[in-house]
């Protein structure tokens, strides 16, 4: 066996880890998308380690995969053993690959005894914040002040379904590469997508938590009509592509496989409760092409490495970007003859935000790619946002050409003010989209004053009133802030109140040259009222996002990388 050659970004990741460790960081995190070769990276780091190495993994497939790749990196120079179930690692092993689930307190104490672990590698470490996994890390001493070892986590996603942050475990994210970067550089397969709308109703499902409750979700989507639609879509759109379908429950996976088989599409099933030999047989039949589609429940989201997969069917709707990225990642590996991977998003009726292929790349989640390349669509959307700051889409499926057409005709001056604001105020309030509303009036003739009601948070008194750039007060609802402003304007007298009305004569005055020169939009407005509104819009869209400060004792959420 010979050690695999490293790609440039893999060498960069290794150097980033070594540099951070030299700087004194002990608990480090590396985030690389599925198919980027995380195991290759940590195998090289295990080879460089002077002391013994402990590799923690969750799934059976990950243990064997890790041992094989570390043995290749070691090139026969050291013993690599697995500790799991009835298997005991040999005493002379430099590297121990362990199932973290099997490391109960007594067993872990036996593993530690007589060994000196200088490097602990945690594969798929987005699980690390779970209580029992934290117990293992504490018992290893990873959080002790005097610990001289290194905890190194690898994951394809830093987000968890329960909302617990990995910053509770790791001190620093030392290296990351995104899925779009890896595709652009030619290391992962391009992704194309189709959006398939279903009539399954998710609107009554529990809205709490970061994702749906599985039992409720299964009841909503595991219905004969939807399964038949999913099966027909796979048959028509995936054609001869080897396909993985992600389902909610075992029953859902069985029913979808049955619907596929009825159409003559050979389908198998794998799930966590299957005996290991039966599961291995199902995977072998899929790899050998005896089954075209493999329905599964949770099993294939991690540790499944089959580069020949060229279609992923998301029969399981999710609100979790991390889970969605893991599922999609099963089809991103390169393979001879494979040009791309097709993602089928089955979109149900919901008022909640469902993850889709476009949303994974920063484009509108309701975008219908119609089989197009998601990278190209994301680039077009990025350009639209640059050329048309503040342009927003209403909810509902829309194609890329339709988005481009709407963007071309977008004019912020035509935005309508929220109906509830119009119902309570006769003043000339104008819309700033999701950011809030604004109003111009005159305290003195010939000098316009500006009042804005802007959204400054996600809860509590999140609507801030600004008068000529100065913060004045906050309210829980935008309508309350508007009423407060209108009240104060009325108190200033008849002249001021009249100047706030839509028909005030000053609004139709010519635009001063100095103001006109500051406006980016072409053609420039003719009247002063429109020019002032446009100036506020352009300034608001160009402003950096507001940083929401977390209350004392709580950590503010980090921006996405």
TrEMBL record:
Q: What residue stretch is flagged as signal peptide?
A: none
Keyword field contains ATP-binding: yes
Q: Is ATP-binding found in the keyword set?
A: yes
Keywords, comma-separated and alphabetical: ATP-binding, Helicase, Hydrolase, Nucleotide-binding
Which stretches make up the Helicase C-terminal domain?
222-368
| PROSITE patterns associated with the record | HELICASE_ATP_BIND_1 (PS51192), HELICASE_CTER (PS51194)
Family annotation (InterPro entries): Helicase/UvrB_N (IPR006935), Helicase_ATP-bd (IPR014001), Helicase_C-like (IPR001650), Helicase_Restrict-Modif_Enz (IPR050742), P-loop_NTPase (IPR027417)
Query: Which PANTHER family does this entry report, sorted A to Z?
Result: ATP-DEPENDENT HELICASE IRC3-RELATED, TYPE I RESTRICTION ENZYME ECOKI R PROTEIN
Domain of life of the native organism: Bacteria
Natural source organism: Labilithrix luteola
What's a single GO MF annotation on this record? ATP binding
Q: What is this protein called?
A: DNA helicase, phage associated protein
Q: Name one Pfam family in it.
A: ResIII
Can you give the residue ranges of the Helicase ATP-binding domain?
A: 19-176
């Amino acid at each position: 066996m010979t050690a695999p050659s490293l790609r440039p970004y893999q060498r960069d990741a290794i150097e980033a880890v070594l540099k951070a460790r030299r700087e004194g960081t002990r608990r480090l995190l590396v985030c690389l998308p599925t198919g980027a070769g995380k195991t290759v990276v940590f195998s090289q780091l295990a080879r460089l380690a002077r002391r013994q190495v402990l590799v923690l993994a969750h799934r059976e497939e990950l243990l064997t995969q890790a041992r094989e790749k570390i043995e290749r990196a070691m090139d026969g120079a050291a013993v690599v053993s697995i500790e799991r179930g009835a298997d005991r690692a040999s005493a002379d092993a430099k590297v121990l690959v362990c199932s973290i689930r099997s490391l109960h307190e007594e067993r872990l104490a036996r593993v530690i005894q007589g060994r000196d672990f200088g490097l602990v590698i945690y594969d798929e470490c987005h699980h690390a914040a779970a209580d029992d996994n934290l117990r293992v890390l504490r018992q290893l001493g990873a959080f002790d002040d005097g610990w001289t070892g290194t905890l190194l986590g690898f994951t394809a996603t830093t987000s968890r379904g329960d909302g617990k942050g990995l910053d509770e475990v790791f001190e620093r994210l030392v290296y990351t590469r995104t899925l779009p970067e890896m595709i652009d550089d030619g290391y992962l397969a391009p992704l194309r997508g189709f959006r398939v709308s279903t009539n399954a109703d998710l609107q009554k499902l529990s809205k709490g938590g970061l994702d749906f409750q599985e039992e409720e979700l299964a009841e909503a989507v595991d219905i004969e009509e939807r399964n038949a639609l999913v099966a027909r879509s796979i048959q028509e759109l995936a054609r001869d592509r080897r396909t993985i379908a992600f389902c909610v429950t075992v029953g859902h996976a069985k029913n979808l496989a049955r619907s596929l088989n009825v159409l003559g599409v050979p389908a198998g099933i794998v799930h966590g409760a299957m005996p290991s030999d039966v599961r291995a047989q199902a995977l072998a039949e899929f790899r050998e092409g005896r089954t075209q589609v493999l329905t599964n429940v949770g099993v294939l989201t991690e540790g499944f490495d089959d580069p020949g997969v060229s279609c992923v069917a998301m029969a399981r709707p999710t609100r979790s970007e991390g889970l969605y990225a893991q599922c999609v990642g099963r089809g991103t590996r390169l393979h001879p003859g494979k040009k791309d991977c097709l993602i089928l998003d089955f979109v149900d009726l919901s008022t909640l935000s469902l993850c889709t292929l476009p949303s994974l790349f920063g484009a509108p989640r309701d975008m219908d790619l119609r089989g197009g390349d998601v990278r190209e669509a994301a680039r077009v959307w990025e350009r639209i946002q640059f050329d048309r700051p503040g342009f927003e889409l209403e909810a509902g499926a829309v194609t890329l050409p339709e988005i481009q057409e709407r963007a071309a005709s977008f004019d912020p001056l035509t935005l309508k003010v929220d109906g509830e604001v119009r119902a309570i105020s006769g003043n000339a309030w104008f819309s700033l989209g999701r950011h809030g509303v604004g109003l111009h009036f005159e305290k003195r003739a010939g000098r316009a004053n500006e009042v804005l009601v802007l959204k400054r948070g996600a809860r509590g008194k999140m609507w801030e009133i600004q008068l000529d750039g100065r913060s004045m007060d906050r309210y829980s609802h935008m309508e309350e802030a508007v009423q407060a402003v209108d009240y104060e304007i009325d108190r200033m007298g008849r002249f001021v109140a009249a100047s706030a009305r839509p028909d005030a004569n000053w609004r139709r005055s010519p635009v001063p040259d100095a103001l006109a020169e500051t406006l980016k939009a072409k053609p420039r407005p003719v009247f002063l009222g429109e020019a002032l509104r446009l100036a506020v819009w352009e300034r608001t869209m160009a402003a950096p996002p507001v940083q929401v400060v977390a209350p004392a004792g709580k950590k503010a959420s980090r921006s996405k990388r």
